[in-house]
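Morning!

This is the sequence you dropped in the shared folder:
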Amino acid sequence: MRVLYLCHRIPYPPNKGDKIRAFHQLRAMAARHEVDLFTLTDEGVNPAHRAALAEFCHGVTVVPLNPLWARLRSLPFLFSGKALTLPYFYSAELAAEIRKALLMRSYDRIFVYCSAMAQYVEQIDQIPVILDLVDVDSDKWTQYASAARLPWSAIYQREGIRLREYEREICEKVSRVLVSTEREAELLRGISPSAPVQVIPNGVGAEFFEGSPALSAAAAPAVVFTGDMSYFPNQEAVIFFALQVLPLIRQSQPDARFLIVGRNPARNVLRLQNIPGVEVTGYVPDVRTYLAQARVSVAPFSIAAGIQNKIIEAMAYGLPVVATSRAIQGLSTSVAEMVETGNSPGELAAKILRLLDDAELARQTGSEGRRRVRADYNWEHALSKVLETLENPGRADMRMAEAHSSV
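The structure's back. Tokens below.
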């Protein structure tokens, strides 16, 4: 088949959650079908990244998106009934490229990654459209509102409402809607009861994360957090941990370190380096270098949606994980059982200290967590479901596709 794949950020390099899922989907589809990728980039068009995708995609169209101009473009819509996410991710250049491709090539399927990108193919009703929401973004904005102060809380609350309305509208039009967890599916059914929703989880690169964590009692105790540090929920999580949890840990383990590993640390994250024991790395070429130094991985989120890749990656590496209950709500029951949870600073510190003080417990927890993650988050299994859905989106849609191909 010929597939038009549309996503909001260039899925290369696959170094963060949304890019990882899209990259694996693209590669799996391209192994069996002819795929044309249309995508945006907010980091400048890198020829090497485009070339890497062109190795398996039939066509790769990458259009730059300037974040500052995108924000300014969205501002006039603040007093409209439209979600600001839509003008933010709208590019006239990309829209023109997609229209041209639809006119010149006969596509059998359209695969849309992220709700904001559905606006480019809203009027298409002759080709089956599969929409991968991954997470329900409107819920994420509502969570942001609860964590922010005025005027941002009001803006975030508005965005949650408006985006929820758009999600309802598009989910009623497409052939299938994919999400990453059963929790997201329940949220979506509450928004659009008739949505043809399907849960397809993420996977984890088991071979890549084959590791040997530094669990010996002789090693300096280190706790690690990984993620893109320009992302608001990640910032909230590490600030909370550094200010409220780490000092409690260092009362019992004075040499304990907190490693904040990830690109684009914002100023409020960089300032945490003034706190004894905190290290902010910025971009690192290989996160495993820092996983190897740690005895425990943490995910102390107050805002969370979908599957936290940082959790399943740390577990795949063999590290025990301590997290808030909100951080694990998207995990399978089997995997969630292996995560130590706490919500207050005292609860989190106590769970971490128990693992730091007992190397054998940490080793056993990490080993069993690794086994369960590899069983439940298998890319081969997840991608086989994606391909099955792509090739058989539904009876009515198959009739539509057959009528389209006969024209």
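Headline: The mean pLDDT is 92.

More detail when I'm at my desk.
O.
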